[in-house]
Amino acid sequence: MKPGFGIEEEFLLVDLDSRRVVAEPAAGALTACHEALGQYFSQEMYKSQIEVASPVFGDWLQAQDFVCSARQRLSSSLATYGLGIYAAGSHPSGNWQAQQPAPGEHYHQLFEDYQQVARQSLVCGLHIHVGVAPGYDRIRLINQLLPWLPLLLVLSTSSPFWEGQLTGYRSYRRVLCNEWPRMGLPERLLDWTDYEHYLDLLQRTGARPEFDCWWAIRPSRRYPTVELRIADGCPRLADGLCIALLFHQMVTHCLETRSEDVQLTREMQWVTQENLWRAMRHGRDGRFIDPLSHAPLSAQAWLLQLQTQFAVAPDHIDHALHILTSGTSADVQLATYDRALARGLTQERALCDVIDEQLTHSAMSAL
């Protein structure tokens, strides 16, 4: 029996007229969202940021139906207030200085503890949970998956702009994430015992009892899952579902083959860190390091290797290949921006074209 899974999507609330991230949406707008989605809706760090956390799915039709319906219901509820959802990793002209923290002690403490790093985190991610049965060491499982994560980031890249400027990165969100403690790649840990020792050491030496690890992949402390956190938010629904499908298949394969003896060597850690930087910087155009042979390879060749390594069915890889050949969300945004400039539009107007396009992608409920 395949493990259950869940999908969490973060969105920014954008004024459809000004195209700005709203600093403080009308209370009625958030109430309408809650009424539309109930327990699956929550607010994130800023008043302008929301999250939809799905129920546990047993199959992909359930996931597709829920995510499509959730976006549709959010868009319908917010339209009354002149707002739309923005699912990309970053908003091209988002102004984090103008944002208001969400209420609640948890977020107050985050801003107090992490200061500037927290304040500038006006970004959105896609998180995927996959269930792991008792008795399987989740740290050993993560060690098997870790070297392949930069490729999943490549597929999701959607944050090439920041504060009105081209960043030169396909995923500037991950650059910002790496400024947080415990939000990059996981520490090199042998097994669950090693992980518990790591947590104990930090708590004994001054970390808050409720401190957390927000690694690119982590064992959830709330659920018996491994949680993928590396991915940028995906404006195009099909892209996000594709990444979730791939990650679910990767975890399922590891659980079914019970190949827990894979060790994360120092070299593998070095290669993964380098591939992560190349994915952030160049996206699908990067030249990567083969996790197995250390030979150079393209993103497309790496994807085909992942298909073999994790026994991914051909029809489950098709959309990922389409992303790599036709362009990620970041590539689409950059192309839209360049076309607008070529038509003689100002930089500000060109960014508006990008925002309009991504608002449309984010609101579309059809795949």
From TrEMBL:
Q: Would the keyword Nucleotide-binding turn up in this protein's UniProt record?
A: yes
Q: What does the record give as EC number?
A: 6.3.2.2
Q: Which reaction does it catalyse?
A: L-cysteine + L-glutamate + ATP = gamma-L-glutamyl-L-cysteine + ADP + phosphate + H(+)
Give an example GO biological process. Answer: modified amino acid biosynthetic process
Which NCBIfam families does this entry report, sorted A to Z? gshA_cyan_rel, PRK13515.1
What does the record give as the function of this protein?
Answer: ATP-dependent carboxylate-amine ligase which exhibits weak glutamate--cysteine ligase activity.
Entry protein name: Putative glutamate--cysteine ligase 2
Species of origin reads Pseudomonas tructae
